[in-house]
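Re: the 101-residue chain
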Amino acid sequence: MQLEAIYEQGRLKFLKPVRFKSDRIYLKVEVPDSEISSHRLQDIPKDLHEQAKSLLDRLATIRNAPFPAEAQVLAPTHRQLERIEAFELRAKYREQQGRPA
């Protein structure tokens, strides 16, 4: 089936409403060559590429840093404890019904 859509800011908007049977489907999209940007990653200036790499390295350092020893773990609030208890109760009922918890 062919459907008409408009691409706008990373999303396809169908011209006529359509309902799919599943949430994730494979689509084949035909786009005119004139609408494809010729800008490639190789065309990026070297200094911009190095700046981006530097930022990614800093981010990796932050992500992989050990957890500070002096960091204080806060005790859960009363509301958080109630939510934990509710989730445990729901898991118990689902298990009794033979459903995955």
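The two ends are 39 Å apart (CA to CA).
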